[in-house]
Amino acid sequence: MLPLDVAPEVAAALAVGAPVVALESTLVAHGLPYPDNLEVARELEATVRAGGATPATIAVVAGRVRIGLPADALATLAADGARFAKAGAADLAVHLARGGDAATTVSATAVLARRAGIRVFATGGIGGVHRGDSGDVSHDLLALARTPIAVVSAGAKAILDLPRTLEQLEALGVLVVGHRTDELPAFYTRSSGLRLDHRVDDVATLAAICRARWDGLGQGGVLVCNPIPAAAALDEATIGAAIDAAVADARAEAVSGKRLTPFLLARLARATGGAAVAANRALVRHDAAVAAELAVALAATS
Ligand code: PSU
Ligand code: MN
């Protein structure tokens, strides 16, 4: 039996088919500096609520899966992020068996959200194929392919090799849909130059697509690509140069594996004087708002 603690508010919503949006905890524990991360975590929950859905931040605490974190647990996750392991879907069993604390990545959050009966999940940017020839490919991609959930994100993080990431998504059979865009967004900027096969301009259509994919076809994940709001987008050349420098630093310091993504994000935060953090914050808030809309639309048609 999976040790699953669903917060009362989330359980009540799920029991009546009311809209719920899952939120991940790695973004909080390892993706953003303190105290911005705590502000973001709270902001995301508030944004989901304002959109008429119930937020469920997911993490592993003392070997139990928590679907929906009380305020004090959220504060600990943010202030004490380093104490939480970074868990992908494959790592979960170890933390559960050992009674450990773990922040969940996109792959782990998607799997756990589905186990709890949640269909919509908001995050900033999914993991993907890293640049260079290390062969580092995030498990997020395969987990998304297998898990019938809609993940609303601003594309894949721009620190990645975006053309390769998009090819892998296609090869794995993830349905990638642009929300009011024809292109894969590049996280900090609105466009990557990579065209998407599908674009949707309203959430009612998006909900119908999700239903057809899950209920009709029995297929897996939908990646909803929601570009950063124009006013919050960073200058492409500036952020591009900062990313190149961060990737070069990681190589020089031989940073790889689970540490790589947090290392690159921290470097960008520093190199841009916080502008990368501000952009990350704005884009993930926008994702939470669209995810709430989608959850409401899905609940209305269930
Ligand atoms: N999106 C963000 N910031 C983050 C992440 C996503 O805006 O920190 C996290 C997600 O949890 C994602 C993970 O699953 O980074 C990818 O890590 P890796 O490349 O090690 O698979
Ligand atoms: Mn990796």
Give the end-to-end Cα distance, rounded to a whole number of Å: 28 Å
Order of SSEs = EHEHHEEHEHEHEHEHEEHEHHH
Mean pLDDT across every amino acid position: 97
Q: Which secondary-structure class do the elements indicate?
A: alpha/beta
Number of strands: 11
CATH 2nd-level architecture: 3-Layer(aba) Sandwich
Strand content: 5-15%
User: Quick one: overall form?
Assistant: globular
What small molecules does this complex bind? pseudouridine-5'-monophosphate, manganese (II) ion
As a percent range, the share of helical residues equals: 40-55%
Would you state the CATH class? Alpha Beta
Contiguous helical run count: 12
Write the layout of secondary structure elements.
Blueprint lengths: L3 E3 L1 H8 L4 E4 L2 H6 L4 H15 L3 E8 L2 E4 L3 H9 L5 E3 L4 H7 L3 E3 L1 H11 L3 E3 L17 H7 L3 E4 L8 H11 L2 E5 L18 E3 L2 H14 L5 E4 L10 H17 L7 H12 L3 H26 L2
Parallel strand pairs: 1-4, 2-3, 2-7, 5-6, 7-8, 8-11, 9-10, 9-11
Antiparallel strand pairs: 3-4, 3-6
Helix pairs in contact: 3-4, 3-12, 6-7, 9-12, 10-11
The structure holds pseudouridine-5'-monophosphate and manganese (II) ion.
List keywords for this structure.
binds manganese (II) ion, 47% helix, 302 residues, Indigoidine synthase fold, alpha/beta, 12 helices, 11-stranded mixed beta sheet, binds pseudouridine-5'-monophosphate
Question: What do these coordinates show?
Answer:
Helices cover 47% and strands 15% of the residues. By secondary structure, the protein is an alpha/beta fold. The chain has a single domain (4-300), classed as 3-Layer(aba) Sandwich (Indigoidine synthase fold). Strands 1, 2, 3, 4, 5, 6, 7, 8, 9, 10 and 11 form an 11-stranded mixed β-sheet that branches. Helix 5 links the parallel strand 5 and strand 6. Helix 3 packs antiparallel against helix 4 (71-79). The two termini are 28 Å apart. The structure holds pseudouridine-5'-monophosphate (PSU) and manganese (II) ion. Residues 24, 26-27, 30-31, 105-106, 123-125, 127, 138, 140, 258, 261, 265, 280, 284 line the site of pseudouridine-5'-monophosphate.
